[in-house]
Amino acid sequence: MNTMTLVDRVFQTLREQILQGIYEPGQKFNIDQLARDLGVSNTPIREAMARLERLGLVEIIPYCGPKIKRLNVEQLTDLYEVRIALEELAVRLVAQSEDPDVFTGMAKALQMQERASNGNDPRAVVDADRAFHDALVQASGNSVLLEMLPSLSDRTRLLLEINRPPSEVIDNAALLRGFQGHKRIYELLRAGDQEAAMQELRRELTRGKGQLVARMMKREDINSTN
Length: 226
What we know:
Layout: H1 3-19, H2 31-38, H3 42-54, E1 58-61, E2 65-68, H4 73-96, H5 104-117, H6 122-140, H7 143-162, H8 172-190, H9 194-225
Antiparallel strand pairs: 1-2
């Protein structure tokens, strides 16, 4: 196995662990322990951490090492402002596309989200939600968007996981709203109504931001009283 492939494998493993909320905000990584756990040397761990830092998931402090990056409400707001602007661009590009297969990925993602909404797995719902947004960006055909948005989506998912209540109760009404919102975006794009699709996208992402801000503030309140 060559070094690059090994680094990729370590990177994907650590990224998925981080996005599953295994680590707490600000938690430090023990490079030696991670290397033992993954059966590799320290070098691919450090290279993977550098990539995770570029994605905004960890921060590397000189002489202290890497740790999970903390995001406050102001940074979350900044993140969503950029994400909304970029995904609105994706909507515009999809609306202008002449590719007959441009909607295929979004249609499959909607089916995935509908199945997840009828289940009892919060992470499956998050994955299905992201699949729709990923499909939207993929359909835009813009290579720069495809490079930029995964990092923003990863940071959003990280915030969702670390602020998830210990025993989360599935809100079926919220799941239905999320699915219906995506379905409206899809249908509006198919109908050629670019402006309405952009408005629906902004409404959906703004609602998601509001829910996440509320979770973050609740978590901060709990931590401050402990």
